[in-house]
Specification:
Layout: E1 12-18, E2 24-30, H1 32-41, E3 45-48, E4 53-56, E5 65-72, E6 79-85, H2 119-122
Parallel strand pairs: 1-6
Antiparallel strand pairs: 1-2, 3-4, 5-6
Length: about 130
């Protein structure tokens, strides 16, 4: 971890992939603390830039990510995690955050993928 190349905010991008299907589920940011916590617990932890706090994936939804393996790229500036995903990875209810296909001009195509959970129910505040 000491050789990883973090950005000026002390963050490194983490690409998260389903260990079985190899589908890319999401991309999030990590710092040293979130990496250490991920290693210690075996569950993915991230740094939220918008909320300025650490978060355990699934802390609200229950849709956790258990680490199967992890890798660093050749420049040591991006991480790749293979995980066992419980439920959907995307807060919109989709399996992957990359459910929106684009056409050759960059226009949004109709979403073909059905949601795996209802975000209104999952994230409803009591």
């Amino acid at each position: 971890m000491e050789n990883f190349k973090y950005n000026s905010d002390g963050l490194i991008p983490a690409i998260v992939q389903d260990s079985t299907s190899k589908r890319v589920l999401m991309m999030a940011w990590m710092n040293v603390h979130s990496i250490q916590t991920t290693i210690q617990t075996g569950l993915m932890h991230y740094w939220s830039r918008s909320r300025q706090k650490y978060w355990l994936k699934g802390e609200t939804s229950g849709h956790t990510q258990r680490v199967i393996s992890w890798h660093v790229d050749c420049d040591q500036d991006t991480l790749l995690f293979e995980v066992e995903q419980v439920g959907g990875a995307c807060h919109t209810g989709h399996q992957s955050c990359f459910f929106q296909e684009l056409d050759s001009s960059g226009a949004l195509l109709d979403v073909k993928e059905t949601r795996v959970f209802d975000p209104k129910e999952t994230y409803a505040k009591p």
